[in-house]
Amino acid sequence: MDWDDLRIFLAVAREESLSRAGRRLGMDASTMGRRVARLETALGRVLFAKTPQGYALTPEGTALIPHAEAAETAAHAAGEALTGAGLTGQLRIGAPDGCANYLLPQLAARMMRDHPGLEIQIVALPRVFNLSRREADMAIAVSRPRTGRATVQKIVDYQLHLAAHEDYLRRHPPIRSRADLRGHSMIGYIPDMIFDRELDYLRETGADHAALTSNSVSVQLQAIRAGAGLGIVHDFAIPFAPGVQRVLAGDISLRRSFWLLRPGDDMRSGRLARLAEEIAQGLRRELGRLEAQVQMQEKRTLDETICRGNAGL
Fold first, then answer.
1. How far is CA 29 from CA 17, 19, 26, 121, in A?
2. Which CATH number among 3.10.450.540, 1.10.10.10, 3.30.450.20, 1.20.1290.10 corresponds to the domain 1-84?
């Protein structure tokens, strides 16, 4: 049995589509179809049933999955043994868009410098990733999954605060307490598109309505930067939005966690274990660096305010 045929079989099984599987492997759909048919002929079994929704596994196809995945693990292990200490090949990381936009690019750049043969794909989607279908090799989540076979590792806690652009704050009365928030425009998630309860930020501020909403934290941050109102912002994203500053930081402070999820059957892969550890360590370093920038900027602003006050005495 040809391993390459099994690789194609696994891609179709996970994507449930010849075209999607082909895009992932860099092949056209017709080639994928021919290779699946060749494997079925060689085995004397029908592995897929074509349905209106795509390619569904038959009982025979389902029975082949664990054997194909074992071959996949063995092939990766052989590659690791031959390539030595360096990490090579493709790595697909799924992440919520805040992490994907403001943390993973710097981490990916560092990992690719350290491992020139490594190719990294960052998939930023506002939803939970399905690792059993190999939508990603590993995923970063904002809450610990309660079900499934994924291997779960807590990476790090992070901070979020209410924030606004300095121009918005100049145009409105001072905000010294939660009571002063009444009448302000709030920015947040589209309520029925909150895919994880940990993202229901505005509820913790006491606000019951947002005038401008998006399913993307990056869009929310840009709206805040444009002066559209106040919203909850990741501290690690603030350095990417000049002029945005925390509001009522001592009163409204949220803590959340990032979790690293890996398929439960990849624990035998030394390569993925090493990649997972590099990702976890790299995220901790980068998040700490960015959050420290916010603290330093606030200290500089406070010192400048005190100096101006003393100069006016």
1. 9, 5, 10, 22
2. 1.10.10.10
Give the pair of three-digit tokens for residue 49. 């049933």
Task: Read off the tokens for 206.
Answer: 């006491």
Backbone angles phi, psi at 212, to 5 degrees: -130, 125
Query: Is the confidence at residue 220, as pLDDT, over 90?
Result: yes
pLDDT tens column, 224-257: 999 999 999 999 999 999 999 999 999 999 999 9
Sign (positive or negative) of CA dihedral 258, 263, 268, 269: negative
Look up the CATH architecture of domain 155-256+291-308.
3-Layer(aba) Sandwich (3.40)
Cβ atoms of 187 and 228 closer than 8 Å: yes
* pLDDT at position 297 over 60: yes
Q: What is the DSSP string of 45-99?
A: S--EEEETTEEEE-HHHHHHHHHHHHHHHHHHHHHHHHHTTS--EEEEEEE-HHH
Amino acid identity for residue 244 in this structure? V
Which has the minimum average pLDDT: 64-68, 73-77, 172-176, 177-181?
Answer: 73-77
- At residue 226, φ and ψ (nearest 5 deg) are -80, -5
